[in-house]
């Protein structure tokens, strides 16, 4: 009996990976073995960096809150401590947005906790 191979599925798998590698430089975009490794590595990076993005944004928000708080004579840690003590439950994302785009509202929050 002849050997049975599923070339259709094999070609479909390879086309899927080569489609994901579209836009890569050199052999990474059109040579199967190179493209497969490049796409696998890219998927690992994207999985990792979806989590890193959350850390990066939190750091950005903290920097913005700190800059806003220092304009009113307070450090970031003092400001956040007084927020907790006064039971004001605004998260860092909202506070950073206020500090950047609505300084009057941020000043009102700072005056409330002083």
Automatic annotation (TrEMBL):
InterPro entries (UniProt xref): Ribosomal_bL20, RIBOSOMAL_L20_CS, Ribosomal_protein_bL20_C
One Gene Ontology term from the biological process aspect of the record: ribosomal large subunit assembly
One GO MF term attached to the UniProt entry: rRNA binding
Segments traversing the membrane: none
Keywords: Ribonucleoprotein, Ribosomal protein, RNA-binding, rRNA-binding
Keyword rRNA-binding: yes
Keyword rRNA-binding appears in the UniProt entry: yes
GO CC annotation: ribonucleoprotein complex; ribosome
Source superkingdom: Bacteria
SUPFAM superfamilies, per the entry: Ribosomal protein L20 (SSF74731)
Classification via HAMAP family: Ribosomal_bL20
Role, per record: Binds directly to 23S ribosomal RNA and is necessary for the in vitro assembly process of the 50S ribosomal subunit. It is not involved in the protein synthesizing functions of that subunit.
NCBIfam families: rplT_bact
Recorded family membership: Belongs to the bacterial ribosomal protein bL20 family.
Name this protein carries in UniProt: Large ribosomal subunit protein bL20
């Amino acid at each position: 009996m002849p050997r049975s191979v599923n070339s259709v599925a094999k070609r479909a798998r390879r086309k899927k990976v080569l489609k994901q590698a579209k836009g890569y430089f050199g052999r990474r975009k059109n040579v199967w073995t190179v493209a497969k490794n490049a796409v696998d590595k890219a998927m690992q990076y994207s999985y990792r960096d979806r989590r890193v993005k959350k850390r990066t944004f939190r750091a950005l928000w903290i920097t913005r809150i700190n800059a806003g708080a220092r304009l009113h004579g307070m450090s970031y840690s003092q400001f956040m401590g007084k927020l907790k003590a006064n039971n004001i439950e605004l998260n860092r994302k909202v506070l950073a947005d206020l500090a950047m785009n609505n300084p009057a509202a941020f000043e009102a929050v700072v005056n409330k906790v002083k």
